[in-house]
Amino acid sequence: MAKTVQNFNAEIKQLLDIVIHSLYSQKEIFLRELLSNASDAIDKLKFQSLTNSSILPAGWEPQIRLVPNKESKTLSIIDNGIGMTTAEVNEFIGTIARSGAKAFMKMNEENKTKPELIGQFGVGFYSAFMVADRVTLHTQKAGENDGTVWESTGDGTYSIDQVPRPEGTGTTLTLHLKEFKNEDEVSDFTDAWVLKSLVKKYSDFIAFPIKMKNDKGEEETLNSQKALWLRSPSEVTAEEHKEFYQHLSHDWNEPLKTIHYKAEGTMEFNALLYIPTKKPWNFNTGDMAYGLSLYIKRVFIMADCKDLLPTYLRFVKGLVDSSDLSLNVSRELLQQDRQVTQIRKNVTTKILSTLKELLLKDRSAYENFWNEFGATLKEGLPADPGNKEKLQDLCLFHSTHSDKMTTLEEYVGRMKNEQKEIFYITGDNLAQIRNSPYLERLNEKGFEVLLLVDTVDEWMIEALREYKEKKLQSITKEGLDLDTAEEKARHEEEKKQSEVTLKPVLEVMKKTLESQVKDVVISDRLTTTPVCLVSASNDPSAHLQKLMSRLGQEQSMMNAKRIMEINPKHPVFQKMLEAGADQQAKWAEILYNQALLTEGSALPDPVKFSHQIADLMIQAASGVKH
Questions:
Q1: Which portions of the sequence form the region Disordered (predicted)?
Q2: 147 labelled as ligand-binding?
Q3: Prediction pTM value
């Protein structure tokens, strides 16, 4: 193949422009990113060789080498990892606008994301252009004889040529370093002391030796290659954990919590887990990878092993190193391995107990965690019944008690003697449900209500059902029991009187709204609002129907009709008694639409409702009586 020149696509051009013209000072992070890529390439080769040993060159020993050259002002990063084919070079470097690249550019535009974070977006290779005005990559895929040379100055084009790599399998990345006008602006990346310091700072934990020749021409290893997880937890400093977490996750924040332990007994493994402080940029997106890295006897097997972690703990980063699993295990066999199931169970228990400890000992830190990952953790209640009791005690809720969040245990401890159930309401946002008419009577009686606004809450509540023998009761459903025996007797009598007084209005409303509601009845839950809609005890809530509709599954809810409750003390019903049947029917439609609005539901015919309100305003202004 003859040497060809090709164009970067538009997104990569834009990304390169951001990197090349970056004004940030932390240019040294390019080395962290490129060493991390080299380490990943060796990991991939080791993993593939477990099932195909022929791809390993004779006498192969994993290593990464740094070759600085002061005279030519170049720095080469050389690995003997998996290498790439020409097609892969084109795909991963030159042409594909991956979601990570797009996300990095979007965040850079919105809030000037630091280039320190570039690796988090999977585009760390381009950090080379922060310090180099020309980058040459020579790579050869394991098991193949043809090599590929890729070169670019970051000007919008790159060249591709096929040339066998003298060292065979692996990759050589040569950076032709820039001349910086201000010598204080950036370190000399051909200086041995600078390179040693940067490897120690950013890449000390890489599992393969990073080597460089010293002044005597002897190769020395720059990194400790410490298997941090095999050391005693008491020997590892917070700074070491921070560096390792950042190396592992590409997250520039410090971890919120570190879990470092060794399981012994019927199965043995070491685990090093981190709970992040902040969500990653792609959390809960389709291209988000999650799971723990799996090592067996210190041999890297795979990243993002989902079998080691339940989905609702997908925010946890870290690794497990097992002494018992087989080295030639495949991803399919992992799913069937009893030991993996036991490791997952053990790791889950440890994470949940750590979160409980954080909740009890540092409420402020736990609330910060909850604001980031609480909705994700709640997924565990319907998904993991075996850990229901642990999970329910970790949940925090907004409530009408105060602006501070509450646990269920704290809620129950505040319950009034006459309160029989734990009350809750679901909705789209706090501002909407804090002012909901469904709260009127409960507020009057001083009953606390949980305010649930996460999408998962509808399913979480179905799984929870009760706590400490107290049933969880939606305040938007029929049969709300708020009264003492004496109050019930009084309200029942008042209800009978209202049914007699308002019988003509009730009959018109039932007939007018028969296609929209199951029934129209007298309410004892409203104090200032004229009407509300409530669900039958076994029917889905309006909020759940709305959520299912957004997911395109409204038919599965069968669009259950609800019950309209009216407040007999509201003056609108006295006015309706004085009006004719036609006017009563119009007002019934208006009241139904008002009930939809106050609960946050969409109107079936907004234009008609707008005209009806306009007509009412005209009538009121004209002094027309009906």
A1: 146-165
A2: no
A3: 0.71
